[in-house]
Write a structure and sequence with these properties.
The chain is of the alpha/beta class and 204 residues long. 31% of the residues lie in helices and 18% in strands. The radius of gyration is 16 Å and the shape is globular. The termini are far apart.
Length: 204
Amino acid sequence: PSQQALADAMTQTHASALIFCASASKLGGTSAMVDDEGVGVAAQVLASVKNQDPRLVLLSALAVDRPDSKSYQITNTIGGNFNGIMDAKRNGEDKVRKIMKNYVILRPGVLLSGKGSGDASALELNQGDTIGGGLSRDELAQLAVAALQTSNKGITVEAYRKKTATKLQTEFQVPSGRELTAGTFAGMFEKAIPDTAGMPYIPK
């Protein structure tokens, strides 16, 4: 939808949140159009809704902050509508942090086939963009809904199944010491460290 159409929809429905899960597609929409510009438009609309403080949950990607990693470089050079997609996702994230305060940026790992167990304890969140892994689409959906429910906000986290955890670059360690786990999906977000100065939390 257009920026005005989205603004009208948010106001008329009194929506309290938006999950942005769109991305570049073979059927239309380049990474620059969707993952960068589209995310920025969504953030601007939500930030401008009067008498409300709607939350934006942005589904981004692991390794966005690691341009030297294989994950970033391979994904960023797929070509076609996907060309530069990691650059675009990074730009989109930056726009959200600059425009909004009530947001959760969720960086999923590789999307695995099949269904998850439904057990939150099989997953973990992380911060610092040093650990990768994978999770199923239904597990990602459960985390996206949980990101709407958590009282924490202004946070950026990575998500994957515990048993798939791998380091994004050779100098990183598994475990990182920044793992976030809980018995419920929403509980996993509660101890995440907020972003600061428009930048994702980066461990020292």
